[in-house]
Amino acid sequence: MTVAVAWGGLPARFRRLPVVGRLVLAVALTMSLVLAGAAGLVYWRVETALDGQLDEDLATYQQSLNHAVRDGGALPSGPDGSLHQVLDAHGRVLRSSDTVRDQRLLTPAEGAAVAQGATIRRDVGSLLPITPGTLRLRAWRVTAGGQTRVVVAAVQRGHRDEALRELLAQLALASGLTLLAASYVGYRAARAALRPVERYRRGAAALAADAEDARGLRLEVPTDRDDEITRLGHTLNRMLGRLEASAAREHQFIADASHELRTPLTLMRAELDVALHRPRTAEELTGTLRSVDTEVRRLVTLANALLDLEQLGSGEHIERTPIDLGRLLDDASAPYRAAAEREERTLTLDHDRATVHVDPRWLEPAIGTLLDNALRHGSGAILLRAESRDGRLRLSVADEGTGFPPDFLPHAFDRFSRAEASRTTPGTGLGLALVAAVAASHDGTAHAENTPSGTTVMIDIACASPEPAA
To answer: Which UniProt keywords apply (predicted)?
Structure first.
């Protein structure tokens, strides 16, 4: 249970480390595994080669002892430091090297097993910790003159063990230095890779701390490269731009609402104060209520226009659908035909036969606003023209009136901007601003101009089929 808890808490502690620390730790752990594997492979190959040489020397010595024991001759000397011992079937030492004399190299159990035909091979002493007199011995049975003999041959392992211990020390040193170097390189690489991220963080923090003074500022992103970090910087700049635009819309909305709503509310308050100041006749109260009703209607119209502009500014309420261009214009112009007939004016449609991808919920009111302006402020015939070319839809409403005042044209699509001649007529001053917002939400523009024959207001928007989502 304790081990499970310890291992279960490790990821949480790992996640609390800084990103650079996690990267360095991951590099260190990975390099440790790689180095351990490589060191293990090298050690195994060297150990195998040394053991092979040692076993080969022991096998050669064994063959010499076999011939000497069978022939009854003198036992030969083997490699430097080698030992031999000959025992009878009962484990008594018959002959041995001077260095061991009567000291038995085999246990009684091992001697009995060899006498029965088994072969014993084992090492005496250990590599680590260091022990003196390390051997590798082999014991086997030999029949000489009808007698069973147990022959033991042993060679020294000192040179082999010393070489392996030196190899372990060298591998540990090399692995340690390599691990330190890899960790340092990983640390420097991680710091270098994350330095732009930290710079972006500081820049974003500065922008957030002083939003007013930082308006229009962006993070510094290199232009001579295109990698993950620079793409992150561009994404953050786009996000900052959208946040700034959203804040600007919010400020504009609040400013417009506070400015334009104050006048009708003040008028309503004045009307009510006068009505409540002294007793009024039913006719006077009715007049007051009608005046208040007019201001309420104006407030509702103004609030709806402001909300429409806010929705269009956010760009999140546009849903393009395919619609026949002729049907779109018929639906948009239908409410204004009767008004044109009452004024004995003509309303003509001229359009291509095409299917366009737009949002009719917004485009129809925009066209209606242009027609309404032409009816109220213009004169003569009205021409609603539309043509679709190269994925763009160009709409225009032209009349034969006197046109816009020259100084008003640059501000025609500003909010609450009204020409002097139209200030005496009902309106909020948001009609053309709404038209411009609808055009912008469809990736287009709105434009007004005076012509020799009157006034023309144009909308140029994208109307191609939207690309399918990936």
So the answer is: Kinase, Membrane, Phosphoprotein, Transferase, Transmembrane, Transmembrane helix, Two-component regulatory system
Q: What size, in residues, is the chain?
A: 470
Model confidence pLDDT, tens digit, residues 392-407: 999 999 998 888 888 8
Q: Mean pLDDT across the stretch 287-304?
A: 68
Check whether 255 has a pLDDT greater than 70. no
- Residue that wins the pLDDT comparison between 304 and 370: 370
Q: What sign results for the dihedral spanned by CA atoms 42, 46, 51, 53?
A: positive
Tell me what pLDDT residue 65 has.
Answer: 92
Average pLDDT over residues 223-247: 76
CATH class of 22-162: alpha beta
Domain ranges of the chain: 22-162, 228-309, 318-462
pLDDT at 470: 43
Q: Is residue 399 a contact partner of residue 378, using CB atoms and an 8 Å limit?
A: yes
**Homologous superfamily, domain 318-462:** Histidine kinase-like ATPase, C-terminal domain (3.30.565.10)
Give the model's pLDDT for residue 251.
Answer: 67
Report pLDDT digits (tens) over 203-224: 777 766 665 555 666 777 777 7
CATH among 3.40.50.300, 1.10.287.130, 1.20.1530.20, 3.40.50.2000 for 228-309: 1.10.287.130
pLDDT tens, residue by residue, 68-94: 999 888 888 888 889 999 999 888 999
Helix (H), strand (E) at residue 120: strand 120-124
Q: What is the SS3 assignment for 393?
A: strand
- List all residues 6 or more positions away from 139 whose beta carbon is below 8 Å from its beta carbon: 105, 106, 110, 111, 114, 119, 120, 121, 150, 151, 152, 153
**CA 460 – CA 443 distance, rounded (Å):** 9
Cis peptide preceding 18, ω within 30 of 0: no
SS3 annotation, 220-285: CCCCCCCCHHHHHHHHHHHHHHHHHHHHHHHHHHHHHHHHHHHHHHHHHHHHHHHHHHCCCCHHHH
